[in-house]
Amino acid sequence: MTALLSVEGLGITFGGLKAVNDVSFTVRPGEIVSVIGPNGAGKTTLFNMISGVYQPGRGRVVLNGEDVTGMAPHLLARRGMSRTFQNLQIFQSMTVLENAISGYHLKERGPVLADLFNLPSSRRRAAAAQAGARELLARVGLDRAAEREAGNLSYGALKRLEIARALALSPKILLLDEPAAGCNAVETEEIDHLIAEVAKSGVAILLVEHDMKMVMRISNHIVVLDHGEKIAEGDPASVSRNPAVIAAYLGTDAETEAAHADG
Amino acid sequence: MKLSAKSSTLLVLVVLILLSPVLFPSGYYYRVGALIFVNAIAVTGIVILTGYAGQISLGHAGFAGIGAYACALAPVHLGLHPSLALVLGAAISAVLAWLVGRPILRLKGYYLGVATLGFGILISMILNNERQLTGGPDGMEVPDLGLRGLLRDAGLDLTNGQFWYFFCGIVLIAAAWLALNLFNSPTGRALRALHGSEVAARTVGVDVARLKLQAFVISAVYASVSGSLLALQNKFITPDVAGFMHSIEMVTMAVLGGVGSVLGAIFGAAVLTLLPQVLTVFAEYEQLVLGLVMMLVMIFLPQGLLPSILRKVRGKDE
């Protein structure tokens, strides 16, 4: 199968520092590709370039055969790219349901005058979006919380809500920036299942994640960054054996984890 | 059956507008009421811009000025009926808001405030200085709307105060209805989304620049209609309508009452319109008391008067 997303030699410089340098990889439909690396390796920066938040200094992003390098996020959304954020970006003062509905923006939007005068066309659009949003909330287990203000939800629930909102766009590719960060084991597993299920439906998934167990368990392909450069890539087994990766990331991380476990 | 937030807000508004006259000790209060409604229309526009979309304007009186002077000038120079002059003013305001808003709305936070402030001052200066056209600071007369005469011929004889009270009341109800429709519509949700998180709104496909511009244009039309009604009601207009203090007043009314809710903002408009009437007893200290009230509200009830009061009434769970 051909690549849905291909990142070609992507790079960006912040004040003389090469935050990300010459990173290339591809993601195919239904595939889960994870980007890992130590803190400050440039993972989120890479994400922000792919999703149009930052303008890349070098390289190209190709989505579905179209060069979308540096394209504004709302235009990428129309082309089937959707994402979540490391530090949650939930619409706090809106209800859970409204948050999910806002994911349907591209499907429910229409002439502003129709919305002002509450014309039947406007009501139809809104009702369709609401029905879809309720189904999605049920899928992520938040249907009971639909009418609550989003700001009152637990962290894990908000993570799922953000994924639900991203899924509302019916994306071709979903970018997840540390979906399990700050979640407990049960919540991590729930998110885990959700991601696998979404991938199975044919959506390409690009993941940044710190939870190594999760990455190893669900990824088809792993890209390892260190100091902004790609130092390795491959399937989970080969990456976890790669000496460069162990030196840069897994080794130190495994040691500290072991130390914590002993302590 | 439980009433929706929209229906209950409109119901409260209609009842208040219809029943308040029972309490009026004299005909003068119809005039105060009409003034409240005129202010409330502009403030409802601020709710859309600031409460929904989270954008701040300190220059909306500029649009009120355009609406007001359209009603003064268009009938004389273009031979338009005053009601059409109101529509023309709203159209000019909309076009101008669109032109001015495109570059301005790229700015954030206080930069946006300062840029809109500049716009308001510009309009105010033009109205003050184009003496041949506008009469300068002395102001100019505004022709009669003529509707009261038509009603009298049709057998409905209202005093001038009564006519403007009910006329502005009806326009306010329409203005509130539109704003409430918008709140729960796809556009309103997108506006509130970009208020909550611009970056997240972008990723769900919201064209943030376009949506902000729409909110700005809509609120400019509200301010323009408010200015037109003020001019037509007073049959006289001065550049003060476009002045900086008027812009600040609009924002203060909205924030004082509760910028997130239409009813709250209307309540704020009522309080700040009535307060100076009550405070005439204090005469010289009026501004002082006004400032103090606003400070206290912002410190102790930062969400605005009405939302805070409602929360108290309903209990903390709400």
TrEMBL record, chain A:
Keywords attached to this entry: ATP-binding, Nucleotide-binding, Transport
CDD domains, sorted: ABC_Mj1267_LivG_branched (cd03219)
Taxonomic path: Bacteria, Pseudomonadati, Pseudomonadota, Alphaproteobacteria, Rhodobacterales
Name of the protein this chain belongs to: ABC transporter ATP-binding protein
Listed SUPFAM superfamilies: P-loop containing nucleoside triphosphate hydrolases
Statement: the UniProt record of this protein carries the keyword ATP-binding: yes
Organism: Paracoccus acridae
Pfam family, one: ABC_tran
Listed GO MF terms: ATP binding
Keyword Membrane listed: no
Chain ranges of the ABC transporter domain: 5-252
From TrEMBL, chain B:
Location, primary (coarse class): membrane
Keyword annotations from UniProtKB, A to Z: Cell membrane, Membrane, Transmembrane, Transmembrane helix
Official protein name in the record: ABC transporter permease
Bilayer disposition of the protein: Multi-pass membrane protein
InterPro entries tied to this protein: ABC_transp_permease, LivM-like
Source organism superkingdom: Bacteria
Organism whose genome encodes this protein: Paracoccus acridae
A Pfam family per the record: BPD_transp_2
Localization: Cell membrane
Record keyword Membrane present: yes
TM region(s), chain numbering: 35-54, 84-101, 110-127, 163-183, 254-275, 287-306
PANTHER family per UniProt: BRANCHED AMINO ACID TRANSPORT SYSTEM PERMEASE (PTHR30482:SF18), HIGH-AFFINITY BRANCHED-CHAIN AMINO ACID TRANSPORT SYSTEM PERMEASE (PTHR30482)
Keyword Membrane: yes
